[in-house]
């Protein structure tokens, strides 16, 4: 029997403040499709937090939806997007980007991050009209391998993108975890300054659903709601996005939830390391990838939910453990205890 | 100052039972992406209600999303969908269907409904490979003009579709209102029997968000989740659909909410008729379209929220009044009172 | 037995000058994909003829290909193109435009032509982000009904398009016939001045295949070859376009061929009128639409090839007669003779 | 000054027999859009050559067009196509396949060929609805690296495709060269037996333009002309395809032209080998890839046209030499002579 689930950061519902806010606002008549007072309030909060009055904010229901709308809105038909081969759009979105007509130029990486040299190589390779023309760089922060970008790294990427006329788009499904990571030094205003578009993930940080797309580049803001409607992303009761993000950005709840998630992951990592195990990538956010003997993985999997990520060598594999705002510390302790018992 | 809003059926939040259920279920760890226990329970409820074990059910967040996924999944690239010119997909979805590559063949109608002769004319017109090939018929029930299909009408449509090898897809954003309309005689099992696919609207009948797509034709069921994921419709916390539809189909809540909406619309209609006004289409569901003098419309619009639908003649226009599960009867009375005062 | 075919203007091969030029150039090694010396020469000829050095010219193999590349290159994903309901893109291209993601907003017309009021009505109708946003106006000249635009009409259209920020695109599959029509007063430089993009049809005026797309608006010229390649329109031996258009624009051959086609159509029209028949639209180009008794049509169809266009009243229909550079005058005489015999 | 061009196999026009046939047929009135007598004759020739009466044949103007129509017709929206990373569709078609909505799953190869283990790995990797579902395998024969498949290899591939329910599609832009390669043992009937669809390249084997798509799988034949029209591939004067393929398959011209191209490539290869140079891939068809010192490449490039393919090591690169039906033997001799002089 499974004692506890470390499979993902969306196994539970929403933070209770959010449910309470849904209740409290329930009977007010509001405009539909995201033009309500709650969405306006939430946007105001975000403008303050990112310290950018000239950005635009829109709410959508999930990460794949955010990615496909942003990318298809920004690129011309023959333009492509450069991404890590491990990037969410390249692997786990069922070809959503290609379904809007665009090729993804993938780059093999060790840690899920892109560097200026990767961009330069892609730009150099795509030399004429018989090939697609890279028009955008897509990064995730934190990445699909749990790593986070530093300010220096993001500045360098932003610089190379500007040099080659590429838009920089940051997938922030797990941005909260990156912002509160011990390895990170980036703040919200940096994202507004260094990216053309990014989104702030709500679903994986305590919301029922909802990602806030922030468009910094003024040329990209026009008519974005047309693009959203066309892809089925304008919800009739769009208020639910506003209500939730207002709560998330009230009294630092957004950061507190992510801090808890990261703290639980760090505790897991510490226990694993103490037990003698290493990691596929440095554990710095709410997704960690310990490398364990296959025999131990099999035993653990009977007590805890998690994904086996990839074979490491003949006898070992990496697994993915994910924590969230809702992760119970006692269950983290229990995991380490069982780890030591079963080894 | 606006006293009350009859603009739409999504101005408020959700029925309190739904909010309560979200609370009660909040801390249970569930599978993501619609594979949780609540979605399974909701599907079971729907199978019972439609009396069809061989149908498949999937939940998505809104009507445009449902329409674009269903239509793009079912049609071959060169196939088109036949719809009323007033159909939601033809007018109010920002080209969502065309964005998936498919033409809509529109038919002018008086009441928003399609009839076998309309289908036959479209099939006859599209004669060779220089034209698209109609592959599906799209209807809305209730329609965008508030009308509803009778069992005889739906049987006839279903028959003509089978005759010509066309899929029949019914948009049920306001199916609850159609099912409880005084003018309707269709029941849930009829939809399972007579359509290839239909969806049951939740958003406009008391849910926060959510439409249940029911796929009856076995050939169309395969790999539908791939199509959903590709269009950004698989929500990480898909449980929120299951939780809501379980509530809606518990103790006939679904019908009760629609009954109330219809009753409020009928009361409005009665008052309007008594005051001497006629309607663009017969008022039989929660959307009614009275024809009023433009001068009166202007006065009313300062007190109540509603859309002016279309000019009727030089001095009159039709307006759209929409009621919902949340409409307050006192506000209906108030509207009629003001109508008589202002006239 | 069919004596002669008036079904279309592409029943024969190419003008002999073109075949001769293909022969003469056959063994010269040239660059591929339209970057050869012949294409460069042909472009130079076109620049001179249209008196516009700032235009760009590209060659593609057919009209549908030209239309789909131009429209999908110019529009943003949520933008639509306004066209006559009889427009080629709206009816006879198997949804090619929708297959690139764009809706066509159709306008009912009597003569296949669009007027400023049509454009204004479409712009007014599309009021918010729940509907597509018109981004372009598509016209054909000559139209699918054989009519041609006057300079005044095109200037007015161009003006209204500029007013509303719409691109004006002219399908010139039969531009040669329009340019040499007795009802027309437009010249090549007018097209460069008044449209954003137009194309010069070769296929229907003596070439084996080939349409020359002329892009006048400088913003639309960038990276057009990427769009062409992506849609499969860059031919390896692109030289065949250059070779043909060089010939067409040598010694006024282009005009001579169209003059002949029009003269043959006018002779047919004169004979038909003399025999007492009227026309669906005024016969002014190489497509004419006489209205004939159904019984006569049946008899004629056993001797000549042509399309029955549409029922006119209970006993009469319009037919389409098309002439070309290759139409034999004796066969025109024969047709009128038989018309009189069979009536 | 460039003496001669080995850049590609489409630098010249067409074989003289083809030009002669265009002349001879020029004034016959024929049906448009590929329904003419010449196309019918050409299809008959192909049915005989491939010994398959149940196949279907369609003509299009180029390889990218063939690839995008076939792939988008066969796959469901969420399905992907597996291809070598060096495959034409993956690199040199400006994202044409993605523009129709489909992802390409690429496999790194040494020689441009796919093997059953590659297919199995891709099928195993794509495990659920969060990823695309491979639906087709795309191979080129000869490949983009000049290699050819053996009968055993194609049978194995065909077997693995059937096992996993994948369509097998062979790009035959240079099929003639593969069929006449000293390293090949495949015949036309093998392609009809072992692939679901393949195409026979005309452009690179003596035609002006034209590829013959052969659809063997009966389920894939229906309505293919709709797909062609929608992508702009039905040429009004489709007769030019028929006329050309009739000539190519008359008196073994098709084979003779390819034999000549291969012989010229083998002569080049022999000279290069004798001069002490090796090859990136074994030279067996009309594209060969010798590895030469960069200094020599620079000198050669002033006398002959060719592409530098890729760096091999610090001081050497591979170049691509392509021969064709029109390659002059004296120029091959000249190349080897200069090679020895300049070394």
Walk me through what this model shows.
The structure is a homotetramer of 343-residue chains. The first copy, chain A, is built from 14 helices and 14 strands. Chain A is globular, with a radius of gyration of 20 Å. The longest helix of chain A is centred in the last third of the chain and has 22 residues, at 253-274. With 343 residues, chain A is of the alpha/beta class. The model of chain A has no long low-confidence stretch (mean pLDDT 97). In chain A, strands 2-8-7-6-5-3-4 form a seven-stranded mixed β-sheet, with helices on both faces. Chain A folds into two domains: 4-11 and 253-342, Aspartate Aminotransferase, domain 1 (Alpha-Beta Complex), CATH 3.90.1150; 16-248, Aspartate Aminotransferase, domain 2, CATH 3.40.640.10. Chains B and C meet through loops of B and loops of C.
The overall pLDDT of chain A, averaged over residues, is: 97
State the domain count of chain A.
Answer: 2
Order of helices and strands of chain A: EHHEHEHHEHEHEHHEEHHHEEEHEEEH
The helix fraction of chain A, in percent, is 40-55%
Biggest interface found: A-B, 54 and 54 residues
Mind telling me which CATH architecture of the largest domain in chain A this is?
3-Layer(aba) Sandwich
Largest sheet of chain A: 7 strands, mixed
Q: What fraction of the residues of chain A are assigned to beta strands by DSSP?
A: 15-25%
**CATH top level class name of the largest domain in chain A:** Alpha Beta
The structural class of chain A is alpha/beta
Strands ordered across the widest β-sheet of chain A = 2-8-7-6-5-3-4
Quickly count the helices of chain A. 14
Give the distance, in angstroms, between the N- and C-terminal Cα atoms of chain A: 19 Å
Outline of chain A:
globular
Low-confidence stretches of chain A: none
């Amino acid at each position: 029997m499974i004692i506890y689930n470390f499979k993902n950061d969306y196994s539970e519902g929403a933070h209770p403040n959010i449910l309470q806010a849904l209740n409290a606002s329930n009977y007010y008549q509001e405009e539909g499709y995201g033009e309500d007072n709650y969405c306006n309030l939430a946007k105001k909060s975000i403008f303050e937090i990112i310290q950018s009055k000239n950005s635009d904010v829109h709410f959508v229901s999930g990460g794949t939806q955010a990615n496909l709308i942003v990318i298809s809105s920004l690129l011309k038909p023959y333009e492509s997007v450069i991404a890590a081969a491990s990037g969410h759009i390249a692997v786990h979105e069922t070809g959503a980007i290609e379904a809007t007509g665009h090729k993804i130029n993938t780059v093999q990486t060790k840690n899920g991050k892109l560097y200026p040299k990767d961009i330069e190589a892609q730009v150099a390779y795509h030399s004429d009209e018989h090939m697609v023309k890279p028009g955008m760089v897509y990064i995730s922060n934190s990445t699909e391998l749990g790593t986070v970008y530093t300010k220096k790294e993001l500045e360098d990427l932003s610089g190379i993108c500007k040099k080659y006329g590429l838009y920089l788009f940051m997938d922030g499904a797990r941005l909260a975890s990156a912002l509160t990571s011990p390895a990170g030094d980036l703040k919200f205003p940096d994202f507004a300054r260094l990216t053309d578009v990014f989104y702030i993930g709500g679903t994986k940080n305590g919301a029922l659903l909802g990602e806030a797309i922030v468009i910094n580049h003024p040329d990209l803001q026009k008519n974005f709601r047309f693009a959203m409607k066309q892809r089925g992303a304008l919800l009739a009761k769009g208020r639910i996005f506003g209500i939730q993000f207002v709560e998330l950005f009230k009294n630092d709840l957004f950061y507190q939830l992510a801090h808890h998630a990261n703290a639980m992951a760090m505790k897991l990592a510490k226990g694993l390391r103490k037990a003698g195990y290493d990691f596929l990538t440095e554990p710095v956010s709410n997704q960690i990838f310990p490398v364990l003997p296959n025999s131990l993985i099999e035993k653990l999997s009977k007590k805890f939910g998690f994904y086996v990520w990839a074979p490491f060598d003949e006898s070992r594999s990496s697994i993915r453990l994910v924590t969230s705002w809702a992760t119970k510390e006692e269950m983290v302790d229990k995991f380490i205890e069982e780890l030591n018992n079963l080894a």
